[in-house]
Design a protein that fits this description.
3 domains, alpha+beta, 5-stranded mixed sheet, globular, Nucleotidyltransferase, domain 5, Alpha-Beta Plaits
């Protein structure tokens, strides 16, 4: 046994670590702690990659050991700037309305914002502290549990993507109780040369960017890919003449997915992220 209390034994070419065996006899040890044995080949046990005795760890974008998501996954929405016109405000409200059942007092909180989207309201928003407070409150509700759920690798994922003239957006979703909940958000600002892409190229770029962003969740599983650009529903089987789209379609070959065309009005989350980047 070494000084740290870890018993090391060599068995048939393997290293067996009995972690903190002395704690087996200690009554003062935490009830949630269970001494364990870690078995690995000598070549693959790398101390710098081992974390023992931690109460929480960040893995696949989530902080294990708690119900809190990793902040890096939701900062795209949390850092979104305040809208400056009705179109931007409607895009934001379209996202949060989708999850209104999980936001306490949603109608009351959103009232100062929805009042600015009426037909008689001016195009340039009259933005005051009241609207800013409502805006920040709704963003906070969208980014916390139970709206943002932890991934369940035994259930299929849904990936809606969208593109605008400024950026790309994607949301990783899973159904919980018959309702689609976001697992993670992603967005990407387009470079000047990428803004010159045609509409179908930008939409295809949003697909490949979203799949690659969430490849740790999607690789090896069958998922549903949602897009409001209907020509892309044939992305996995059509013969495109556009060389750029052909290259991107080749990058998708390792994945198993079904493309589902949806209405633009149903793609509110990815649409919002594609505009606020």
């Amino acid at each position: 046994m070494d000084e740290g209390g870890t018993e090391v034994e060599l068995r048939a070419g393997h290293i067996v670590l009995d972690v903190f065996p002395a704690l087996r006899k200690r009554r003062t040890a935490s009830p949630s702690f269970r001494p364990m044995s870690i078995v690995a080949t000598v070549a693959h046990l790398k101390p710098s990659k081992c974390f023992i005795g931690y109460t929480s760890l960040v893995f696949l974008g989530h902080r294990l050991g708690s119900v809190l998501p990793n902040e890096d996954l939701v900062n795209k929405i949390k850092d979104a700037p305040s809208p400056s016109n009705k179109k931007q405000l409607r895009s934001f409200l379209g996202l949060v309305v989708y999850y209104h059942a999980f936001v306490p007092n949603f109608a009351a909180i959103a009232a100062p914002l929805s009042d600015l989207t009426t037909k008689d309201a001016p195009e340039k928003l009259m933005w005051t502290d009241v609207q800013e407070q409502a805006f920040q409150t709704l963003k906070r509700h969208v980014c916390v549990h139970p709206v943002l759920c932890l991934p369940n690798m035994s259930k299929p994922f849904i990936l809606p993507t969208d593109a605008s003239g400024e950026g790309l957006g994607a949301i990783l979703l899973q159904e919980v109780g018959g309702v689609k909940h976001p697992v993670a958000f992603a967005s990407k600002k387009l470079l000047p040369r990428e803004r010159n892409y045609s509409t179908i190229e930008r939409e295809a770029f949003a697909v490949i960017s979203g799949v690659q962003k969430f490849q740790n969740y999607l690789m090896g599983t069958h998922f549903l890919l949602e897009t409001d650009h209907h020509p892309l529903q044939y992305l996995d089987r059509a013969k495109y003449q556009n060389s750029r789209i052909v290259r991107w379609s080749l990058l998708l070959q390792p994945y198993r997915f079904t493309v589902h065309a949806i209405k633009g009005s149903e793609n509110v989350g990815a649409d919002f992220l594609s505009r606020y980047v």
